[in-house]
Each structure stands twice: as structure tokens, then as C-alpha cells.
User: Which sequence fits this backbone?
């Protein structure tokens, strides 16, 4: 053994050979703690948790370092629904012995199931509250709390005991008996419960002839037979239970209410989520559209600019082309003039567009117009008059019209107009003939053809 | 016949989880007091 005073070991006797300390009492307390632990363990194995709890509490009282007894006490507390006490014992135990201590495992297991732990703690809280109510003589409130406590944690034995006591107090013996049965089913040798059973046997004469344990056994049988009977209901009865209108209505109402609550809770958030999604999508579309529009606008502007450039280029090229063509025409006209072919030369000059000519060619063009047009006009007139007089009106018309194209106030212009009027009259084109005659009357009052035109106009009107 | 009030006195509140820490510290404090009282008793015996 180990001396508690100096910590050194020695084999026998109650006096330490090293420090002379008397350890007789110390040994006695240690042994007492062990014996009490053994008794507590025995009771726990037999299922008498109340007795086990007492023995183990005493064991720990004798030797607070008895970790094994403390751990078992924690287990017994836990089994009887006293979660707070159980955790306390295990925490103290694990602080005394830090390694290879099952208390740590127990604590971990409890903390890993927080929901169950909270329920057990709630049951304890309700039990404590019920004691307060009972002491205030508000038995009804105490009963409510205790019923809740045993429904939340059916292991809470003391709650059953107090509930039975409360029912005895308000003389509801059948209910007291009901909860007593439940209690005794869990703890056969619970002292308080057996005491209440005796009390109930006295208070209820029908059962008074039986001994308390016999009665208890009967009650157990009753409970088990009732349970069996419940489990093996006839089919019709079973079916009836589930087709009651009230139950169906309650079920449907419940389902509707649940659905309504779920919708009320979830719908706003769902709508909000959808709204946000729609807004995001709209923004994305706007961004894409605006980007696309900008890109297209830029593209169109570029194309327009390119088009303008091409147009300018084309115009420039066309100008060059026209210049070349018209320069060629001037050269041709010059050649025709050199050949004294004034008629063709004049027709060629008509084809020329002087705005596309360079300065030099423009001067040549002007000279050509000045010199060739009168000669060409005279030539066309001579031919036209000759054709007219020989009744060759078609040729005469072409030549006389060409004459007027190149004429510029020559003295044969009125004659040419008159002849054209006559040709038109002869061709049956009265309106044209009238216009020619009127032109002579209005433009050439001094003309030798004036009277002829007046007469011809009078004839055809 | 059971006396309700005296029977009720046997029921003590159980420890709730919120009170575990306090109860452990109280116990430790009690241990220190026990040691102090033991030492004082020893001193008294020696002086006698």
C-alpha cells in the first residue's frame, strides 16, 4: 500500500515505516468506499437503481478519488434521467484521472447527441418547476409539468414518484395507479413507489386484500396483456380506427395547415429569388443589347465612311474616264474639221461634255463650236431645203432639225422653221405644224415667211 | 396515511446542466474549507 502522508509504499501494518504516520483510518475509509461501490454495483446489476444510487453516493463520499464508483454513479444518474448529476460526476472523474478513463467516452457520447441531451435537461427543468408548484399548493400546474417531464424523458423516475404523490393528494387514485405501474415496471424495488403502492392499497378497498407485490405483479400482467391486446386488434376494429371521419378531417386540415404554413414561409423568399433572377436577366439582356447596338452603330458608321470613300473614289475614276473620253471626242472632232466634214464634226461636238475637259481641250472645244456650228448649220439647211423642194420630207426634216440645233441667229433660221411646219402639216401633225408657224409669227415678225406662216396657220385652224 | 408536505420535502431539485460548473466549483471550495478546518483542529490539539 501507499502512504497518503509521504507517498512511499510499504507491505503491511497501519503505520508507515518511513514517516511513522498512522494510516488506520485512511485504510478503513478506502475499504468502506470499495465495499459500498461493490454493493452499489450489485444493486445496479439487479436493476435496483435507487439503492445503487445511494450506495455509490456513499462510496464517493468516503473516497472522492474513487473514480470507478464515480463513473458508475454517473451511469446510474443518467439511467434515472438525472443528466446534470451524471455529467457532473463524469467531469469530476475525468479531472481526477485524465487517462484511460471511460468517463470521457460517456461525456463525448452525451455531447454528440445534443438534441437528446437538451430533452433530458428540459425534463429535469420541468421536474424542478413542478416541485416549486407543488410546494405552492398549485397541484394542477405541478401535474402538467410532471406529465410533460415524463413524456419528454420517461427515464425520469423521481418525476413519476412526484406525479403519483400529486394524484394521491388530489385523490385521483386510478391515475396515480397508472403512473405507479409505469414506475414500478422500470424500478421494481423503488422504495418511494412501494410506499405509495401500500398507500394506494389502503385507499382503494377493492385491491386491499392483495399484498403489495402480488398486486404489482397483477398490474404488470394487466399492462402486458393490455399491450398485447392493443397490438393484436381484430381487423375490423383496426380498420374502424383509421376510417373515422374526424381523424380524416383532422388529417386533411393538418395537411392543409402545414402546406399553408410552408407556402407562407417559403413563397415570399421564392418570389424574391425569382424577382432577383428576372432583374438580373433583364440587366444582362440590356447589357447585351446595348453592347450589340453600340457595335452595330459603329459598324454602320464605318461602312458609311467606307461607302463615301468608295463613292469619292468612283467619282474620281469616272471623272478621269469622262475626261479621257471627252478628250478623245475633241480629237475626233478636230480630225473631222480638218477633213471639212462639218456636219459630222458638229454632231461629234454635241456629244462632248465640256465640264470634263482640261483647260487646253476646253479652249479647242470652244474654238470648234465657234467655227464649226455655223458651217454645219448652213450645210444642213442647204440639204434640208433641197430635200424639201424635191418632196423628200423625211430627209428634209432630219436635216432641217439638225440645222436648227447648230444655228445661232442666221438668216435662214425662219425659213428652216417654216419648212419644218410645212413638213409636219404634210405629215398630218397639225399641232407641231401650228407651233412652228406660231414661232415664226412671234419670233420673226420681219421674216419673208411671216405672211406664209400666217396663211398656213389660218388654213389649218 | 402519507403527509403530503413532509413527503414533498424529500423531493429535492435536480441539477440542471447550466449549474454543473457552479456545483463543481462549490465542491472545490468546500474541500479547501475542510482542509482549513482540519489544520485548525490539529493546531488546537498541538497547543493543548
Assistant:
Amino acid at each position: 500500500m501507499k502512504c497518503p502522508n509521504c507517498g512511499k509504499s510499504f507491505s503491511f501494518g497501519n503505520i508507515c515505516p518511513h514517516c511513522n504516520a498512522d494510516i488506520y483510518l485512511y485504510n478503513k475509509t478506502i475499504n468502506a468506499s470499495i465495499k459500498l461501490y461493490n454493493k452499489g454495483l450489485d444493486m445496479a446489476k439487479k436493476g435496483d437503481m435507487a439503492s445503487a444510487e445511494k450506495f455509490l453516493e456513499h462510496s464517493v463520499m468516503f473516497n472522492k478519488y474513487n473514480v470507478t464508483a464515480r463513473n458508475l454513479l454517473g451511469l446510474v444518474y443518467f439511467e434515472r434521467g438525472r443528466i446534470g448529476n451524471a455529467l457532473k460526476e463524469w467531469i469530476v472523474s475525468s479531472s481526477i484521472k485524465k487517462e484511460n478513463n471511460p468517463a470521457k467516452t460517456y461525456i463525448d457520447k452525451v455531447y454528440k447527441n445534443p438534441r437528446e441531451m437538451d430533452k433530458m435537461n428540459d425534463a429535469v427543468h420541468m421536474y424542478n418547476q413542478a416541485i416549486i408548484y407543488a410546494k405552492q399548493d398549485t397541484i394542477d400546474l405541478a401535474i402538467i409539468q410532471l406529465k410533460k417531464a415524463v413524456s419528454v424523458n420517461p427515464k425520469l423516475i423521481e418525476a413519476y414518484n412526484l406525479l403519483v404523490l400529486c394524484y394521491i393528494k388530489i385523490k385521483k387514485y386510478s391515475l396515480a395507479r397508472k403512473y405507479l405501474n409505469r414506475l414500478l415496471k422500470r424500478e421494481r424495488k423503488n422504495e418511494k413507489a412501494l410506499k405509495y403502492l401500500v398507500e394506494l392499497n389502503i385507499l382503494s378497498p377493492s385491491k386491499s386484500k392483495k399484498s403489495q407485490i402480488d398486486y404489482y405483479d397483477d398490474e404488470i400482467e394487466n399492462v402486458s396483456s393490455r399491450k398485447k391486446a392493443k397490438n393484436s386488434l381484430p381487423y375490423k376494429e383496426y380498420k374502424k380506427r383509421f376510417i373515422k371521419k374526424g381523424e380524416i378531417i383532422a388529417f386533411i386540415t393538418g395537411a392543409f395547415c402545414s402546406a399553408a404554413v410552408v407556402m407562407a414561409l417559403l413563397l415570399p423568399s421564392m418570389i424574391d429569388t425569382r424577382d432577383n433572377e428576372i432583374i438580373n436577366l433583364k440587366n444582362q439582356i440590356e447589357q447585351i443589347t446595348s453592347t450589340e447596338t453600340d457595335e452595330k452603330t459603329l459598324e454602320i458608321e464605318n461602312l458609311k465612311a467606307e461607302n463615301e470613300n468608295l463613292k469619292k473614289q468612283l467619282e474620281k475614276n469616272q471623272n478621269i474616264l469622262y475626261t479621257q473620253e471627252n478628250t478623245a471626242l475633241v480629237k475626233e472632232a478636230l480630225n473631222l474639221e480638218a477633213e471639212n466634214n462639218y456636219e459630222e464634226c458638229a454632231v461629234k461636238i454635241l456629244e462632248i461634255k465640256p465640264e470634263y475637259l482640261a483647260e487646253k481641250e476646253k479652249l479647242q472645244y470652244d474654238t470648234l463650236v465657234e467655227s464649226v456650228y455655223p458651217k454645219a448649220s448652213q450645210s444642213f439647211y442647204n440639204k434640208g431645203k433641197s430635200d424639201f423642194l424635191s418632196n423628200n420630207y423625211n430627209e428634209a426634216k432630219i436635216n432641217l432639225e439638225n440645222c436648227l440645233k447648230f444655228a445661232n441667229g442666221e438668216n435662214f433660221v425662219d425659213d428652216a422653221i417654216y419648212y419644218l411646219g410645212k413638213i409636219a402639216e404634210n405629215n398630218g401633225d397639225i399641232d407641231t405644224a401650228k407651233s412652228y408657224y406660231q414661232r415664226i409669227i412671234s419670233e420673226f415678225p420681219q421674216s419673208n415667211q411671216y405672211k406664209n406662216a400666217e396663211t398656213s396657220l389660218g388654213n389649218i385652224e | 396515511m402519507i403527509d403530503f408536505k413532509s413527503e414533498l420535502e424529500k423531493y429535492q431539485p435536480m441539477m440542471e446542466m447550466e449549474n454543473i460548473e457552479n456545483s463543481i466549483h462549490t465542491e472545490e471550495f468546500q474541500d479547501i474549507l475542510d482542509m482549513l478546518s482540519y489544520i485548525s483542529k490539529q493546531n488546537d490539539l498541538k497547543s493543548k
The radius of gyration of chain A is 67 Å.
